[in-house]
Amino acid sequence: MKKKKRKKYDGMDIFSFVALTLLAMSIVIPFWNAVVISFETSSAYLNKPFSWLPGEFTLANYQELMRQGEGLVRAYMNTIKVTVIGVAAGMSIMVMSAYAFSREFPGKKGLFMVMLFTMYFGGGLVPTYLLIKNLGLIDTHAGVILLGLSSTYNIIVMRNGFQSIPVELSEAAVIDGASDPAIFFKVMLPLQKPMIATFTLFTAVGCWNNWYWPMLILNSRSKVLLQIFLRSLINATSALTQQEMIESADAIRSYSLGIQMAAVFMVVLPIMLVYPFLQKHFAKGMLVGGVKM
């Protein structure tokens, strides 16, 4: 019986392993520390600012967060609404645009250059705001969705993925009598599921974390998104004076930093729950889209 040869690791393999391990630790450790802070009391945190487990376990920070009740639920519902509609509309536009640019049609090169121009040069903050205002989309979720509807980078990478599919498949479908929509939906899309799943995740994270434009164009409390709610909560808890904290009956159990970390964890949790279902497509999707440039 032949013995399996051990794989030899060169200097670059060792360097990559160490670098990626340090990078992973730089991301995981601060996040875990934030989770721990959200579950411990202020006295435990003051005694030991960094620990792997809560020094004195408490749910007071989450209870304080839940007291926001209606505002928190409304912010969640608004963010879910904007994310679902934004992902559905955005991915539809980007996937169809990418497929179109992977085929030949009159004026393709000029139109592609116009699209590429927007990747490097934007209209600017004030002109974009005035455009949204003139369209009557100030203080509407439609304005937020419209501003994040498309990404030139995503279209280019998905175009490369469609171009990597042999043209013979399309020709065979045409011979069988398939129409252009049938080729797109029944041949091309199934072959690009990993790539589409990957960019669906990217788009969903972008919609979920969007805060800059919502902060500028949303004025009503009933339309606030989760990131803006989190920002206002952090500002409110940070404004608490030491005297107010001392006078509070729950000061020992809940405190401003703990509430902030609890809010951060509540905001990140939905994306963390979605990611495992798309993880298997992630590496393959990026690889397929980056094969041909």
How is the topology of this model organized?
Layout: H1 11-38, H2 42-47, H3 60-66, H4 70-101, H5 108-120, H6 125-134, H7 141-147, H8 152-163, H9 167-175, H10 180-191, H11 193-209, H12 212-217, H13 226-238, H14 242-247, H15 256-289
Helix pairs in contact: 1-15, 3-15, 4-7, 4-8, 4-11, 4-13, 9-10, 11-15, 13-15
Structure, explained:
With 293 residues, the chain is mostly helical. The chain has a single domain, classed as Orthogonal Bundle (MetI-like fold). Helices cover 72% and strands 0% of the residues. The chain is built from 15 helices and no strands. Helix 4 crosses helix 13 and helix 9 packs across helix 10. The longest helix has 34 residues. It starts with 10 loop residues before the first helix and ends with a helix. The C terminus is likely disordered.
CATH class: Mainly Alpha
Q: Describe the biggest sheet?
A: none
Give the uncertain stretches in residue-range form. Answer: 249-254, 289-293
Mean pLDDT: 80
Query: How many domains in all?
Result: 1
Series of secondary-structure elements, N-terminal to C-terminal: HHHHHHHHHHHHHHH
The CATH architecture name reads: Orthogonal Bundle
Number of helices: 15
What is the CA–CA distance across the termini?
46 Å
CATH superfamily: MetI-like
Strand content: under 5%
Shape: globular
C-alpha Rg, in Å?
Answer: 25 Å
Number of strands: 0
Summarize the structure.
This protein is an all-alpha fold and 293 residues long. The chain has helices spanning 11-38, 42-47, 60-66, 70-101, 108-120, 125-134, 141-147, 152-163, 167-175, 180-191, 193-209, 212-217, 226-238, 242-247, 256-289.
